[in-house]
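To: structure desk
From: M.T.
Subject: fold request, one chain
Message: Could you run this one when you get a chance? Sequence is below, nothing fancy, just the single chain.
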Amino acid sequence: MTIVFDTETIRIITLFENITNANVKDCIIRDDVVYVLVDEGDLKKVLGQRGMLIKMIERILGKRVKVFEYSRDVVEFIKKAIPRVISLKVRNENGKKTIEIRVDRSVRGLVIGRNRRNLKIYKELLERHYGVDELKVI
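Reply: Done. C-alpha coordinates follow.
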Protein backbone atom coordinates (compact mmCIF):
# COMPACT_ATOMS: atom_id res chain seq x y z
CA MET A 1 0.00 0.00 0.00
CA THR A 2 1.35 3.40 -0.98
CA ILE A 3 1.09 6.08 1.67
CA VAL A 4 0.73 9.68 0.49
CA PHE A 5 1.49 12.50 2.93
CA ASP A 6 0.19 16.05 2.77
CA THR A 7 2.39 19.11 3.35
CA GLU A 8 1.63 19.40 7.08
CA THR A 9 2.46 15.74 7.67
CA ILE A 10 5.76 16.05 5.80
CA ARG A 11 6.61 19.13 7.87
CA ILE A 12 5.93 17.25 11.11
CA ILE A 13 7.93 14.20 9.99
CA THR A 14 10.90 16.41 9.10
CA LEU A 15 10.73 18.26 12.43
CA PHE A 16 10.44 14.96 14.31
CA GLU A 17 13.40 13.38 12.49
CA ASN A 18 15.59 16.47 12.92
CA ILE A 19 14.99 16.72 16.65
CA THR A 20 15.10 13.01 17.55
CA ASN A 21 17.42 11.54 14.87
CA ALA A 22 14.89 8.71 14.55
CA ASN A 23 13.59 7.42 11.21
CA VAL A 24 9.83 7.99 10.87
CA LYS A 25 7.93 5.32 8.91
CA ASP A 26 4.46 6.85 9.23
CA CYS A 27 2.63 9.82 10.72
CA ILE A 28 -1.09 10.27 11.27
CA ILE A 29 -2.59 13.57 12.41
CA ARG A 30 -5.98 13.48 14.14
CA ASP A 31 -7.44 16.60 15.75
CA ASP A 32 -5.07 17.49 18.60
CA VAL A 33 -2.88 14.34 18.49
CA VAL A 34 0.00 13.33 16.22
CA TYR A 35 0.66 9.58 15.98
CA VAL A 36 4.16 8.68 14.82
CA LEU A 37 5.51 5.26 13.82
CA VAL A 38 9.31 5.02 14.12
CA ASP A 39 11.72 2.33 12.95
CA GLU A 40 12.50 -0.66 15.10
CA GLY A 41 14.97 0.31 17.84
CA ASP A 42 14.44 4.07 17.43
CA LEU A 43 12.01 4.48 20.34
CA LYS A 44 14.88 5.14 22.77
CA LYS A 45 16.12 7.98 20.56
CA VAL A 46 12.67 9.51 20.54
CA LEU A 47 12.15 9.42 24.28
CA GLY A 48 15.48 11.02 25.15
CA GLN A 49 16.15 11.78 28.78
CA ARG A 50 12.88 11.57 30.73
CA GLY A 51 10.86 12.26 27.58
CA MET A 52 12.32 15.72 27.06
CA LEU A 53 12.39 15.42 23.24
CA ILE A 54 8.72 14.45 23.06
CA LYS A 55 7.79 17.33 25.36
CA MET A 56 9.77 19.73 23.17
CA ILE A 57 8.03 18.49 20.01
CA GLU A 58 4.63 18.76 21.71
CA ARG A 59 5.39 22.36 22.68
CA ILE A 60 6.48 23.25 19.14
CA LEU A 61 3.46 21.61 17.49
CA GLY A 62 0.91 22.54 20.15
CA LYS A 63 -0.39 18.96 19.96
CA ARG A 64 0.07 15.75 21.91
CA VAL A 65 2.42 13.21 20.34
CA LYS A 66 2.05 9.43 20.65
CA VAL A 67 4.86 7.25 19.35
CA PHE A 68 4.73 3.61 18.24
CA GLU A 69 7.70 1.40 17.41
CA TYR A 70 7.56 -0.57 14.17
CA SER A 71 8.22 -4.30 14.08
CA ARG A 72 8.40 -6.63 11.08
CA ASP A 73 6.11 -9.06 12.90
CA VAL A 74 2.50 -7.89 13.33
CA VAL A 75 2.12 -9.78 16.62
CA GLU A 76 5.21 -8.08 18.07
CA PHE A 77 3.98 -4.68 16.87
CA ILE A 78 0.63 -5.15 18.60
CA LYS A 79 2.30 -6.24 21.83
CA LYS A 80 4.44 -3.09 21.76
CA ALA A 81 1.57 -0.76 20.79
CA ILE A 82 -0.99 -2.27 23.21
CA PRO A 83 1.02 -3.62 26.16
CA ARG A 84 -2.08 -4.82 28.03
CA VAL A 85 -2.88 -7.57 25.51
CA ILE A 86 -3.65 -10.90 27.19
CA SER A 87 -4.00 -12.98 24.03
CA LEU A 88 -3.92 -12.41 20.31
CA LYS A 89 -5.25 -14.34 17.30
CA VAL A 90 -4.42 -13.69 13.66
CA ARG A 91 -6.84 -15.26 11.17
CA ASN A 92 -6.98 -15.32 7.39
CA GLU A 93 -10.51 -16.05 6.23
CA ASN A 94 -11.85 -15.48 2.72
CA GLY A 95 -8.83 -13.38 1.83
CA LYS A 96 -9.37 -11.04 4.80
CA LYS A 97 -6.78 -10.75 7.53
CA THR A 98 -8.44 -10.34 10.95
CA ILE A 99 -6.77 -9.81 14.32
CA GLU A 100 -8.57 -10.43 17.60
CA ILE A 101 -7.01 -9.16 20.80
CA ARG A 102 -8.14 -9.96 24.30
CA VAL A 103 -7.55 -7.42 27.06
CA ASP A 104 -8.57 -7.26 30.69
CA ARG A 105 -12.02 -5.75 31.21
CA SER A 106 -10.61 -3.03 33.44
CA VAL A 107 -8.50 -1.58 30.59
CA ARG A 108 -10.78 -2.35 27.66
CA GLY A 109 -12.12 1.22 27.56
CA LEU A 110 -8.57 2.63 27.53
CA VAL A 111 -7.56 0.39 24.65
CA ILE A 112 -10.63 1.28 22.58
CA GLY A 113 -10.66 4.98 23.54
CA ARG A 114 -13.44 7.54 23.50
CA ASN A 115 -15.49 7.22 20.31
CA ARG A 116 -13.22 4.29 19.32
CA ARG A 117 -10.43 6.79 18.67
CA ASN A 118 -7.50 4.56 19.75
CA LEU A 119 -8.95 1.54 17.98
CA LYS A 120 -9.23 3.50 14.72
CA ILE A 121 -5.56 4.53 14.92
CA TYR A 122 -4.40 0.96 15.66
CA LYS A 123 -6.51 -0.30 12.77
CA GLU A 124 -5.19 2.33 10.36
CA LEU A 125 -1.55 1.54 11.24
CA LEU A 126 -2.19 -2.21 10.91
CA GLU A 127 -3.94 -1.69 7.59
CA ARG A 128 -1.18 0.52 6.16
CA HIS A 129 1.80 -1.60 7.22
CA TYR A 130 0.55 -5.17 7.68
CA GLY A 131 -2.45 -5.50 5.36
CA VAL A 132 -4.85 -6.18 8.24
CA ASP A 133 -8.51 -5.74 7.25
CA GLU A 134 -10.16 -5.94 10.67
CA LEU A 135 -9.18 -5.46 14.33
CA LYS A 136 -11.42 -6.72 17.13
CA VAL A 137 -11.02 -6.12 20.86
CA ILE A 138 -12.62 -8.75 23.08
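Reply (cont.): Helices lie at 7-20, 43-47, 52-61, 74-81, 108-112, 117-130. Let me know if you need anything else for the meeting.
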